[in-house]
Design a protein that fits this description.
Layout (H helix, E strand, L loop, with lengths): L2 H8 L32 H6 L1 E3 L11 E4 L6 H5 L3 H8 L3 E4 L2 H4 L3 H19 L3 E6 L1 H12 L7 E7 L9 H4 L6 H5 L5 H6 L10 E6 L25 E6 H4 L7 H4 L4 H12 L27 H14 L36 E5 L6 E7 L2 E2 L3 E3 L2 E7 L6 E10 L5 E10 L2
Parallel strand pairs: 2-3, 2-4, 4-5, 5-6, 6-7
Antiparallel strand pairs: 1-3, 8-12, 9-10, 9-13, 11-12, 13-14
């Protein structure tokens, strides 16, 4: 076993994740188009938790949201792995730092992801992609499940050993107490039942779930039919693939699949570069000969991985005797909640900035409900402020009209549905 493998094995808890069999749809849980609740986390905390590379406001392709695993900070997970990898590819990224090193209530972590999705979509003016490791590959699904307005904002969700159905390992581990996130990632948890209720995927989103048969944390994970990481229901486009399906001798386990594994990297890049989820047939066999993914710096690898281990080891998560209770919105039972389904998710009554896509170069005019909005130039891009506060129930149409640099007429419309 190499020094790298020993180091990464020691840090396996950095991404404490999950597995098990899929839960059947449970009618007690909210219909999938039930409007999401207002976020309970203060806006300043949500803003501070999101750090982005340069160019988000002017990117010409989908930016990537990075979501870390249980026990890690965003820096631990991504600063020496996928941030430099995406920089080399010229892809803009943002990393969200989940509270308490991703050991707090995953329902709370979901709010951070909701905010990150909305922010990145508004600033870039385009759909985003998400890459997550372990819990980080699962928690975006909580956002998509219970905040339907985020679904049209996401193009790809790529998970490395995602804990999509919990893990059989959590029960024995939590007998004397566990962090909130670990309780919720048990295969029998109420959280997992809510997450996978009614349907697991949604139309318009591509799901790439990369797992390893040597996973010691997320179990079982031997095949797509019963493995925890794999998704099997819903309207989304799905690829479930083991790294060993491409490289039979691949030995990277739970932690390293999301950090250094070149096969996982190749699948992620394939998904980002094509419509739909990753296609294993497009991954070249030469990938199997690579020691690490291209974002890894061999000269600083020992130092980088040791720093991540030190960060994890020094953190003592809060422990609880039982799983946190499910939020009332999961069953549409909050006071004043609307329980009916809707074809279009309701927008929250908030004030936010919309970035005009870069292709609108001349004669730009933006209207909201027929009223002309004032254009501003921010960071080299045209922006408008959309204010939905105080609006009555109904639909509002945002219409952007203009011409390209060559004079071709273009327009783009978005509809905001406000619930009563």
């Amino acid at each position: 076993m190499s020094r790298l493998t020993r180091l990464l094995t020691l840090t396996a808890a950095l991404a404490v994740a999950t597995p098990a069999a899929a839960h059947a749809a449970d009618p007690v849980f909210a219909p999938v188009d039930t409007p999401g609740p207002a976020l309970s986390v203060p806006a300043d905390k949500l803003k501070a938790a999101l750090q982005c590379s340069a160019g988000l406001d002017a990117t010409k392709r989908a930016p990537v949201l990075l979501v870390q695993g249980t026990g890690a900070t965003a820096k631990d997970n991504w600063s020496w792995t996928y941030e430099p990898a995406l920089d080399k590819l010229g892809i803009v990224w943002c990393a969200v730092d989940l509270p308490e090193q991703a050991t707090a209530d995953v329902q709370l972590a979901g709010e951070y992801v909701v905010s990150a999705i909305r922010t990145m979509h508004a600033r870039s003016g385009r759909k985003i992609a998400i890459i997550g490791h372990s819990q980080g590959g699962m928690v975006p699904r909580w956002a998509l499940r219970f905040w339907p307005d985020t679904r049209p904002m996401v193009d790809d969700l790529i998970g490395f050993a995602p804990s999509n159905h919990g893990t059989t390992q959590a029960g024995p581990t939590c007998q004397k107490g566990c962090s909130a996130a670990n309780w919720q990632q048990a295969d029998t948890s109420n959280f997992m039942k809510a997450l996978n209720s009614r349907q697991e995927t949604f139309k318009g989103i591509s799901y790439t779930n990369v797992y390893t048969r040597t996973d010691e944390i997320v179990q079982p994970n031997q095949n797509p039919q019963t493995g925890s990481s794999s998704l099997r229901t819903g309207d989304g486009a799905i690829t479930n693939v083991a790294t060993q399906d491409i490289c039979p001798t691949d030995v990277f386990e739970h932690l390293s699949i999301g950090l250094v594994d070149p096969v996982a990297y190749a699948l992620a890049v394939d998904a980002l570069g094509h419509d739909g989820p990753a296609d294993p047939k497009r991954v070249p066999l030469t990938t199997c000969a690579m020691p690490y993914q291209p974002g890894i710096n061999p000269a600083t690898l020992a130092q980088d991985s040791s720093a991540a281990l030190a960060s994890y080891s020094a953190y003592q998560p809060r422990e609880f005797p039982a799983e946190p209770a499910l939020a009332c919105y999961t069953t549409a039972s909050c006071p004043g909640a609307r329980t009916g389904t809707a074809k279009t998710a309701c927008s929250s009554r908030r004030r936010f900035v919309v970035h005009v896509p870069a292709r609108f170069a001349r004669g730009v005019r933006v209207t909201l409900g027929g009223r002309v909005l004032r254009l501003k130039r921010t960071g080299g891009r045209l922006t408008v402020t959309v204010d939905l506060r105080g609006r009555r129930a109904g639909s509002l149409r945002l219409l952007i009209r203009g011409r390209t640099a060559k004079g071709t007429p273009v327009q783009q419309a978005r509809t905001y549905r406000l619930c009563g």
